[in-house]
Amino acid sequence: MARSSVRTDEQRALAMSDAAARAMEEHAASAGLSWPPAPFASSEAGSFADRLSANPFLMAPMASVTDSAYRIMARAGGAAIAYTEMVSVTGIHYKSEKTWQLVEPNQAEPDLAVQLFGADPEHFREAAPLVAERVGDRLALVDVNMACPVPKVTKGGAGSALLDEPELAAKIVRTLVDSLDVPVTVKIRVGRTPGKIVGPDFARAMEVAGASAIAVHGRVASQMYRGESDPAAIAEVVKAVDVPVIASGDALDAARAVRLLSDTGAAACFVARGSYGDPWIFANAHRVLAGECETEVTPRMRLAAFRLHVRLLVATGAHMARARSLAGWYLRGVPEAAAWRERAMHCRDVADYLALADELEATL
C-alpha cells in the first residue's frame, strides 16, 4: 500500500506542538549546535541588504529535503534564514492539503522564507494573502522559483521556463510585490542553454519589477545539476543589478561557500547539497569568512546531530522515511560507515534509529 503524503491528525497535532523546540533545547548543545536562533526579519536587523551582510549564508530551498525539521537543524547550525520546499501556487489554488503542509512553519521556527512556483499571475495573486495569513508574522520573504530545470515543472511554464518569458516573469513579481508587505525575491539560472545566457538582462527586468534580491544559480537549466557552476556568470549578474545577489551553486563546504562570495561579488550565498548531514557548515562558513579556523565536527557530534534530526522528524509530524536519507548523510565519515548505513536502511521507527546510533557510538 502506498504511503499517504497527507498528515494524520496525530502528525498534524505534533507539527503544531512545542515538541520540536523541546527537542532542540534538550539536545542541540550535545550536537554542537546553537539554540534558539535569531530571527532573520527582526526590526533590529536593519534593511534586507543589511541582514544579508550580517549573515550571508542561507539555507537553500530543496524539494523533498527542506521540511521543517531540516530548516530547524540549519538554523541551529547558523543559517541566516531557511527556505521551504517549492510550493505550487496552483496547489494552493486547488486547496491541496499536501501543498499547505509545505508552507506551515513549525512552532520552533522563528521565521522562514517561502518559495513559490507557477506560471499564472492570477494564481500568485490569490496565493499571496493566503500564504501571508497562514505563516503570519514569521513570514520573512517570498521567493519565486524561476530556476528549477525539472521537466514536470518546466512543461507547465514554471521554473526555468520563465527565463524565456521575461514579461510574464516580471508580471508575477509585480503581482506579489503589490500583494505582500515582505520582500519578494526570485531565484534564476544564468540561462536555459549554454548558447543563451540571459542572466544579466533577466535579472535587471526582475529588479525593475520590484524584486528585492536575485538568487542566481551558476548553471544553465540544460545542465540540470551536472558539471560545474560558473561563478563568472553569476558575477555578470551582480554587475548588472543594484539589488543584492545571492549566489548559488557548488557551495559544498564552508571554504567553497566563502569562495563563492569572493569569486562572484555576491551579497550572500545559498548552501544546498553542502548541508546534507552538515548543519555546521553555516557557522563554519562564518568562521572562514572571518579568517578563523573551522570547528571540527567529531563522529560523536555527527551521531548526536543524527539523533536530534530523527527526533525532529517525529516532533514535526514528518514521515520517518526521510530518516533513511539522513542516515546516509550523517553517517559519512564514521568508521565502517557503509556497513552502518546499510543497517540503517532496515530501521523501522525512531527507536530503531536511536538504538543504531547508540550502538555505533559505543564502538568509537
Ends: how far apart?
39 Å
| Count of DSSP H/I helices | 17
Bin the strand percentage. 5-15%
Shape: globular
Average pLDDT figure: 94
Low-pLDDT stretches: none
Helix proportion range: 40-55%
Query: Structural class of the helices, strands and pairings?
Result: alpha/beta
Strand order of the largest sheet: 1-10-9-8-5-4-3-2
Gyration radius over CA: 20 Å
User: What is the oligomeric state here?
Assistant: single chain
Could you explain how this protein is built, in words?
The protein is α/β, with parallel strands linked by helices. The protein is 45% helix and 13% strand. The protein contains 17 helices and 10 strands. The strands form 2 sheets. An 8-stranded parallel beta sheet has the order 1-10-9-8-5-4-3-2. A two-stranded antiparallel ribbon has the order 6-7. α11 links the parallel β8 and β9. α10 packs parallel to α11 and α12 packs across α13.
Task: Break the fold down into its secondary structure elements and pairings.
Elements (H helix, E strand, L loop, with lengths): L8 H7 L3 H9 L20 H7 L2 E3 L8 H9 L6 E6 H5 L3 H7 L8 E6 L3 H15 L3 E8 L4 H4 L11 H14 L4 E6 L1 E3 L2 E2 L1 H11 L3 E5 L13 H10 L4 E4 L5 H11 L3 E4 L9 H9 L9 H17 L6 H9 L6 H8 L5 H13 L2
Parallel strand pairs: 1-10, 2-3, 3-4, 4-5, 5-8, 8-9, 9-10
Antiparallel strand pairs: 6-7
Helix pairs in contact: 2-14, 4-14, 7-9, 9-10, 10-11, 12-13, 14-15, 14-17
